[in-house]
Amino acid sequence: MTNPSTPTPGGDPTTEAHLETGRLGRASLVSLSLASFFPAVGIALVPLLVFSTAGTNAWQASLLSTIAVVCVGRAVTAFARRYVATGSLYSYIGEVFGPWARYLTAAALLAGFIAAIGALAAVVGIFAGSFLLSHGVDNALSFGPQLAIFLIALALAAAIAYRGLDTSVWIAVTLAVLSFPLVLVITIASAAKTGLDLADQFSLSEFSLSGTLQGMAVGAAFLVGFESCTALAAETRNPRRNVPLAVMSVPVLLGGLFPLVTILQVPGLQAASAELEAGMSAPAALALHAGLGSGVATASDLVLAVATFAALIGFINYGARFAMTLAGDGILPAPLGKIHPRHHSPFVSIAVMSIAGFVLVAALVFTAGDVVSAYYTVAPLVVYLWVLPYVLITIGAIVLTVRADEYRPFLIGTSVFGAVATAWMYINGVINPPPSPANAMSWVVLIVLVVLLAVFAITKRRAPSAAVEVAPQPAAVEEV
């Protein structure tokens, strides 16, 4: 079978097209991984969302969500240090559980990447629409203008991904860096204006276990998919060292930042409750209460739209390489595995994943009636789709350790906690369902998995044996 990072000798340029081994250095991979999780948007929204469920003790829920994702990350790195692959968790899980787990993981992550791309497009639409609305475009949040925003954002992000990883990293990281300072300034200004009210925030008198656990699930949602950079392992220099570092950078650096900014923002969010209830975005409301003026409040919407666009570039790259890997294994059509001979990018998968994300978000906006409702519908779906792979990878890390006859109690303990906390995200959605239509997503995810498994079975049965040889094959190389 053809390794995606090895050109075939002779033949035409199409068959020689390949992913470039060792293209990304450590700094580039870590930077893209962080940029893909829109730090500015997380700082702007995580405190509000966790505060809305956990109250003044929101920082505790945020800290628990960070710990839970760090524990899952520890399990992922146990595999990333041993194997180099382009299939993310799909490739890792197969090394422990075999084909049945690989197919389940493939179905969950393929749908998860499409849902994530659609969700990010919706967030771009929300902030870009809010910015246009403040500048007199009264229908900026309606279906027609939103459709145009989705189309432009996804087409530009796909074009950047098509140009290759160097272009993607440079643009995504630049946009993320440019968008970060304004949200940080708003957060600090709000804390300076209102104070921290630590006595109230650290008091256990208003502690609620159910609220804290719900807040944990909400906070973890902004870190789901943190391991997606593992799909770039074959294109990374020294992947067994650099990929684990990039994987842990998101939950450790960003996840560690979220409880801190939650402490800084909660007093301001309490003071701005009237503006928030009227529909104003959290950073805009905090900016006004901090005395930064309406200009800064309006600019924050544009900045957050730009930050989300940077994340969109990252996830199109990740999702396309994942689809390419499935095509190489023969469970998706072989053309999805084609790689551009000049840019060394999986251009067919980039186009297909972008179109699928567009169709999903457009259908949700049309059905839900507005882009905000559409986002609150697709966001739980993204979380639920990642639950099964996370549970499998944490259990798999324990199995991997036992098979290797290694005594690693810390890894086993963190894996157990990660599995339980991740499973809770789905259980919480069933016990404490969000408003309709998002409440149906806990059941929709099961239907999606069944449908995709059926598609995989049909594609695998019909695919000729030569199709797998033409398409790129993920290289799961065991460490010697």
Tell me the layout of helices and strands:
Elements: H1 13-16, H2 26-35, H3 39-54, H4 58-80, H5 89-97, H6 99-134, H7 143-162, H8 165-194, H9 198-201, H10 209-221, H11 239-271, H12 273-277, H13 282-289, H14 294-328, H15 347-368, H16 371-403, H17 409-431, H18 441-462, H19 465-470
What would you note in describing this structure?
- Helix content is 73%, strand content 0%.
- The chain is mainly alpha-helical.
- Helix 3 (39-54) packs antiparallel against helix 10 (209-221) and helix 6 (99-134) runs antiparallel to helix 16 (371-403).
- The longest helix has 36 residues, at 99-134.
- The radius of gyration is 22 Å and the shape is globular.
Compose a concise summary of this entry.
This protein is an all-alpha fold and 480 residues long. It has helices at residues 13-16, 26-35, 39-54, 58-80, 89-97, 99-134, 143-162, 165-194, 198-201, 209-221, 239-271, 273-277, 282-289, 294-328, 347-368, 371-403, 409-431, 441-462, 465-470.
Main pleated sheet: none
Q: How many domain regions?
A: 1
Write down the overall geometry. Answer: globular
In percent, how helical is the residue content?
A: over 70%
Which second-level CATH architecture applies? Up-down Bundle
Q: In angstroms, what is the radius of gyration?
A: 22 Å
Distinct helical segment count: 19
The structural class is mainly alpha
What's the mean pLDDT score?
84
Q: What is the end-to-end distance?
A: 21 Å
pLDDT < 50 runs, ≥5 residues: 1-15, 465-480
Counting DSSP E segments of at least 2 residues, the number of strands comes to: 0
Task: Report the CATH C-level class.
Answer: Mainly Alpha
CATH superfamily: Amino acid/polyamine transporter I
CATH topology type: Amino acid/polyamine transporter I
Strand content: under 5%
GO cellular component, one term: plasma membrane
Transmembrane segments: 29-52, 58-80, 101-131, 143-162, 169-192, 212-233, 245-266, 286-316, 347-369, 381-402, 409-427, 439-458
Protein name: Amino acid transporter
InterPro entries: AA/rel_permease1, APC_superfamily
